[in-house]
Task: inverse folding
């Protein structure tokens, strides 16, 4: 196996010069750099990544900790993270925290012990141990998909300051309000919400969007119409059954993520409730086969791959400038209007347009960046 000394002899330079070229630790003349690279290629030399990391204090690797990797939404986020990391010359180490606060901290610690340069994490509903670990060890981190309230770095209560870590997430409140507002415009007055896992920022923000649309329409909020599906299919089956068992069941249903949409559809089928004739259905999270259902599912589409890619770029910017202020980046969603809401299909196979004033659109707005979490 060729060594760095072999590369140096072949290129006619010192071992130190080869090291500077491979590690980028000092500028080298272009023709000298090219001679080293040609020698590396000719000899088939493979740098010792571990040894190089001990010299540079960087491994050019990123840790990713997200739960439910089998979920198509997080699978697409993973694809975005991997593509952006690879483009930047970074490798990726992956851990699944299982949305368990204790396991979450252990998973991130494991990544940290593998000497990753930074981590991207989708935090659980109770991430205090995780936040404490990241802060105690000064681990460069970006929170993905879910955000934390602005708190001080010592772990105190909510403040008007910046969030303790960079964050990248989608808009949740406005898009959910669009879905519910669309159903209101179609004449629905009892709209059920299968909400996500309590404590997650996505759950809180989407529930806020639900309430916002009701308030805008002059409708009272009925807590019986909001049941947690715990962000999973089985939980959504139970939540949907509870909503349908109310003395006055909803005439329309909104599910707050794609896994819960599947669970809701199972319960509707068991109850022989056709969509949209028996009950209208809209969902937060579009997915690849949503257009293949009959009727086709009206949904909010999140920019999942771009979320993953943007998280990598934000982390690399943090690594390049550790003292820069933290920021929260919000990416827009798109209203994908189909027919499960009860709108008629046009002859060309496309659904009718959403009623004016519901905010429904298939054109996302520009991304937003904020200095504080919302």
Result:
């Amino acid at each position: 196996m060729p060594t760095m000394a072999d590369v140096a002899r072949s290129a006619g330079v010192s071992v130190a010069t080869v090291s500077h070229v491979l590690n980028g630790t000092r500028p080298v003349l272009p023709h000298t750099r090219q001679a080293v690279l040609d020698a590396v290629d000719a000899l088939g030399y493979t740098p010792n990544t571990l040894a190089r990391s001990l010299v540079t204090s960087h491994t050019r690797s990123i840790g990713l900790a997200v739960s439910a990797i089998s979920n198509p939404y997080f699978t697409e986020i993973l694809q975005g993270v991997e593509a952006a990391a690879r483009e930047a010359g970074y490798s990726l180490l992956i851990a699944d925290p299982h949305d368990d606060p204790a396991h979450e901290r252990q998973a991130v610690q494991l990544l940290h012990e593998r000497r990753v340069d930074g981590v991207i994490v989708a935090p659980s509903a109770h991430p205090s141990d995780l936040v404490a670990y990241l802060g105690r060890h000064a681990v460069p981190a970006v929170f993905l998909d879910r955000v934390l309230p602005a708190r001080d770095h010592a772990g105190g209560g909510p403040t008007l300051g910046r969030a303790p870590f960079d964050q990248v997430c989608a808009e949740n409140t406005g898009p959910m309000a669009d879905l519910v507002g669309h159903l209101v415009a179609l004449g629905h007055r009892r709209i059920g919400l299968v909400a996500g896992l309590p404590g997650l920022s996505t759950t809180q923000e989407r529930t806020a969007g639900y309430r916002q649309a009701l308030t805008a329409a002059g409708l009272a909020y009925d807590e019986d119409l909001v049941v947690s599906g715990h962000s999973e299919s089985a939980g959504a089956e139970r939540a949907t059954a509870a909503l349908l068992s109310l003395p006055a069941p909803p005439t329309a249903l909104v599910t707050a993520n794609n896994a819960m949409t599947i669970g809701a559809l199972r319960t509707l089928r068991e109850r022989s409730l056709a969509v949209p004739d028996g009950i209208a259905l809209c969902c937060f999270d579009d997915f690849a086969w949503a257009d293949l259902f009959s009727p086709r599912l009206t949904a909010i589409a999140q920019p999942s791959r771009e979320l993953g890619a943007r998280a990598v770029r934000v982390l690399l910017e943090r690594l390049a400038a550790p003292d820069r202020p933290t920021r929260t980046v919000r990416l827009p969603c798109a209203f994908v209007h189909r027919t499960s809401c009860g709108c008629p299909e046009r002859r060309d196979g496309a659904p009718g347009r959403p009623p004016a004033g519901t905010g429904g659109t298939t054109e996302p707005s520009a991304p937003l960046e904020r200095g504080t979490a919302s």
